[in-house]
Automatic annotation (TrEMBL):
Residues 27-50, 112-132, 390-421 are annotated as: Disordered. GO terms for cellular component: extracellular region. Residues 241-367 form the L,D-TPase catalytic domain. It comes from Micromonospora endolithica. The keyword Acyltransferase applies. Keywords: Acyltransferase, Cell shape, Cell wall biogenesis/degradation, Peptidoglycan synthesis, Transferase. This is L,D-transpeptidase. The active site is at H318 (proton donor/acceptor), C336 (nucleophile). GO terms for molecular function: acyltransferase activity; peptidoglycan L,D-transpeptidase activity. The lineage of its organism: Bacteria, Bacillati, Actinomycetota, Actinomycetes, Micromonosporales.
Length: 421
């Protein structure tokens, strides 16, 4: 199976000659009926069935074929306008490039061609449901367009409220990723359903273009909710950069293209507020921000510069001139990675959102979902979190780890309120 097309997003429309409307689905062309000695045309079923009403706005045109493959789709609305889209690689459906409009009538004409060249065409007309009135699940795509991300950048979609297990397959089926050059990957859910990540077995290759679509607008989610919006973004992957932080030595190694380019003394979280050990990803960057932990057991308010978020819980790498005397020897922070003001400023020019940050040797392990934790498990463990079958070619563990990395570029959508220390 060519996985490049499985997650294809770019809009394509292919045309077929219009036919007169038939019964439940349009009947075969008379020229396609097998004559004596002529090969039988393929069997083709198209859904939704003809005259179906109240079809969800997220509907796709289902195409089931025996003895051939779909070779043409013409999809139009009730004003005669073409609806752009393209087929899934497995041939199970044709996916409109945007959500359908409420209370509109659409016509799909599908042609399948057999190996002998004989064709079958089916036509169906259906009407979409009114605008949904059920509560919408808020989705956030943490992958903005026209940015350059690090090589560990997972495509992340977050949900509020979380998606229940029984609805995750339907949601995941409406999440699409295309990479150029091709580097197939898989989706994996955080156990509580609050986030789902997409990554490849290895880190992204520098220069890769990634196109994402979270086509959730109008999607029925369980019995009582619907998806809120349809979001798309295209961005690129830049050069390889990674940060490796060792609590034993109190040093950060900055790795670029597989080579250590600088070592920086650090002060990590003190025993009562330890830094998490694990594989994290830089989530956002701030030249200046305020850490406000009022309401916590250890309340404080402090302005910091050159801060890079690693977790939702408020762990950052940031400049901490007040702890420079401790950096390289003693942990005194509230869980953040403290570096000197000069080092923090330098790091801001080297790192980017999507860089891998590995911390080892601290008192606590990184919690699943506390940040973009897609790399904190093995590939074999990661694919177990998919709600849909993972292609067999993606199941083996990678044998040769790629160098992690990152680049210059932008930041995804804002994260929750800032804390740190």
């Amino acid at each position: 199976m060519d996985l490049r097309r499985r997650f294809a997003l770019l809009a394509v429309t292919v045309a077929a000659t219009p036919l007169a409307l038939g019964g439940c689905t349009a009947e075969e062309r008379s020229a396609d009926r097998p004559a004596q000695g002529r090969a039988a045309p393929p069997e083709l079923t198209v859904t939704p069935t003809d005259r179906t009403r109240n079809v969800p706005l997220s509907a796709e045109v289902g195409t089931a074929v025996r003895g051939g493959r779909v070779t043409a789709v013409r999809f139009t609305d009730d004003r005669g306008a073409e609806v752009r889209g393209e087929p899934r690689e497995d041939g199970s459906s044709w996916v409109p490039a945007a959500p359908l409009k409420p209370e509109r009538t659409y016509t799909a004409e599908v042609t399948a061609t057999g190996d002998s060249g004989a064709t079958t065409t089916r036509r169906t007309t259906f009407t979409t449901m009114p605008a949904p009135t059920k509560p919408a699940v808020t989705s956030t795509l943490y992958f903005a367009g026209n940015r350059t991300y690090g090589t560990a950048m997972p495509v992340t979609v977050a949900f509020d409220p979380p998606i229940p297990k029984e609805a995750r397959d339907d949601v995941q089926r409406r999440l699409f990723v295309k990479t150029d050059p091709p580097q197939p990957g898989a989706w994996s859910w955080v156990s509580d359903g609050s986030q789902v990540y997409y990554r490849a077995p290895d880190f992204w290759r520098p220069g890769t273009t990634i196109t994402v679509r979270a086509g959730l607008a109008g999607l029925p989610i369980g019995k009582d909710q619907v998806g809120d919006d349809d979001r798309t973004a295209t961005s690129k992957i830049g050069r390889q950069v990674a940060l490796e932080i060792d609590n034993a030595s109190k040093q950060m190694s900055v790795v670029r293209d597989g080579k250590v380019v600088r070592r920086i003394p650090v002060s990590l979280g003190k025993p009562s507020t330890p830094t998490s050990s694990g594989k994290m990803v830089i989530m956002e960057k701030h030249q200046q921000t305020t850490f406000d932990t009022r309401g916590s057991a250890d309340p404080y308010v402090v302005d910091v510069e050159d801060a890079q978020r690693l977790t939702w819980g408020g762990e950052f790498i940031h400049g901490a001139p007040w702890s420079e005397g401790d950096q390289g020897s003693t942990n005194v922070s509230h869980g953040c990675t403290n570096v000197s003001a000069a080092a923090a400023d330098w790091l801001m020019g080297v790192t980017q959102v999507g860089d891998l940050v590995t911390v080892k040797g601290t008192e606590v392990e990184l919690t699943e979902g506390n940040g973009w934790t897609a790399w904190n498990v093995s590939w074999d463990q990661f694919v177990k979190g998919s709600a849909l079958p993972v292609p067999s070619g993606l199941r083996p563990s990678p044998t040769t780890p790629a160098h992690p990395g990152a680049v210059a570029g932008g930041s995804p959508a804002p994260a929750p309120s800032v804390s740190g220390g």
